[in-house]
Design brief:
Layout (H helix, E strand, L loop, with lengths): L3 E2 L10 H9 L11 H14 L3 E5 L2 H12 L4 E6 L3 H4 L4 H6 L2 E5 L9 H7 L9 E8 L9 H14 L2 E6 L2 H8 L4 H4 L4 E5 L10 E5 L1 H13 L8 H13 L4 H17 L11 E5 L4 H9 L3 E2 L1 E2 L2 E5 L6 H15 L2
Parallel strand pairs: 1-10, 3-4, 3-5, 5-6, 6-7
Antiparallel strand pairs: 2-8, 7-8, 9-12, 11-12
Helix pairs in contact: 1-11, 2-11, 3-10, 12-14
Bound molecules: pyridoxal-5'-phosphate (PLP).
Pyridoxal-5'-phosphate binds next to helix 3.
InterPro entries: ArAA_b-elim_lyase/Thr_aldolase, Low_specificity_L-TA-like, PyrdxlP-dep_Trfase, PyrdxlP-dep_Trfase_major, PyrdxlP-dep_Trfase_small
Cofactor: pyridoxal 5'-phosphate
Protein name: Low-specificity L-threonine aldolase
Length: about 325
């Protein structure tokens, strides 16, 4: 029985074409700036997203950390969602390593931060307060796509108050594909953007931070400091380039499969939250763990916390979705 792993879109295996690209990659020592494939990836994504420069790093956590630290000094503050990855799921790195105070705010039902609340949280210039420097948004935010009009309004607000605007765009391309727009329509509003290559795009490792030459210069120094300077990293960058060239449009299949899954589960009587991109959330309460164990015996892996989370990706087919629905149907008859 083959395993269907819906825990995350990080579990994808490199495709044959990707492995071939990795095998053929020209490499050099990237700490010396001499890896042609890393340089190509950084420039390619920066151009594609409308920034001067890019920086290849091992993880999205490092990419966000370097972005925050490049924007903020010790004793500065960034405004961020209570459920945002940079705040909640990155070990408090901005505070621990950057001495940057987070000011978390509740995330609205649509994944945005209420801009009136953001404005109210910006500290006046007074020595009692940390200096508010940056607003960090996330898109997609737990699979929700932030509206383009909202991004424009957030940009306007940050201009008004002299704040920088950072995007945790781990799943930027899920948002762009869902909206049917060029990713630049999203990234044009930001001073820096972090993009994960290792989520739905299907690369084994890597993220890219994009921004101005000055910002990326700072981030490059910080990358070395936190141990993220890699040597013949072109082997990995080749996978990222391949993903950007061949595995962006197909994200629409993941979205279609997530919609198919949600529909099937609703027909069985399950409560399923509205699906926008590649994640299906089910508020299950007490039953979550029992259901997780039940489907695990049938070769289906899901994440269970307060909600069950099922994530579609490169290695999940429409036929797999049918098998998942059948297992969930069997659970209802236990
Ligand atoms: C996965 C993820 C990250 C960080 O990625 P890692 O590569 O696992 O460190 C950042 N932000 C969001 C929204 C993510 O989903």
């Amino acid at each position: 029985m083959s395993v269907i792993d819906l825990r995350s879109d990080t579990v994808t295996q490199p495709t044959a074409g990707m492995r071939e690209a990795m095998l053929r990659a020209e490499v050099g020592d990237d700490v010396y700036g001499e890896d042609p494939t890393v340089n190509h990836l950084e420039q390619h994504l920066a151009n594609r997203l409308g920034f001067a420069e890019g920086l290849f790093v091992p993880s999205g956590t490092m990419s966000n950390l370097l972005g925050l630290m490049a924007h903020c000094e010790r004793g500065d503050e960034y405004i961020v969602g209570q459920e945002a990855h940079t705040y909640k799921y990155e070990g408090g790195g901005a505070a621990v390593l950057g001495s940057i105070q987070p000011q978390p705010l509740a995330v609205e039902a649509d994944g945005t931060l209420d801009l009136a609340r953001v404005a109210a949280a910006i500290k006046p210039d007074d020595f009692h307060f940390a200096r508010t420097r940056l607003l960090a948004l996330e898109n997609t935010m737990q699979s929700k796509v932030l509206p383009l009009t909202y991004l424009a309004a957030a940009r306007q607000l940050t201009h008004e108050y002299g704040l920088a605007l950072h995007l945790d765009g781990a799943r930027l391309y899920n948002a762009a594909v869902k909206l049917g727009v060029d990713a630049r329509e999203i990234t044009q509003h930001f001073d820096s953007v972090s993009v994960c290559l290792s989520k739905g795009l299907g690369a084994p490792i890597g993220s890219v931070l994009c921004g101005s030459a000055e910002l990326i210069g700072k981030a490059r120094r910080l990358r070395k400091m936190v141990g993220g300077g890699m040597r013949q990293a072109g082997i990995l960058a080749a996978a990222g380039l391949y993903a950007l060239q061949h595995q962006v449009e197909r994200l629409a299949e993941d979205h279609a499969n997530a919609a198919l899954l949600a529909e099937g589960l609703r027909e069985l009587g399950y409560t399923v939250e509205p699906v926008q991109t590649n994640m299906v959330y089910m508020p299950m309460g007490q039953q979550a763990r029992a259901l997780q164990a039940f489907v695990a015996e049938r070769g289906i892996k899901v994440s269970a916390a307060a909600r069950l989370r099922l994530v579609t990706h490169l290695d999940v087919s429409a036929a797999d979705i049918q098998r998942v629905i059948e297992s969930f149907a069997a659970f209802r008859h236990v």
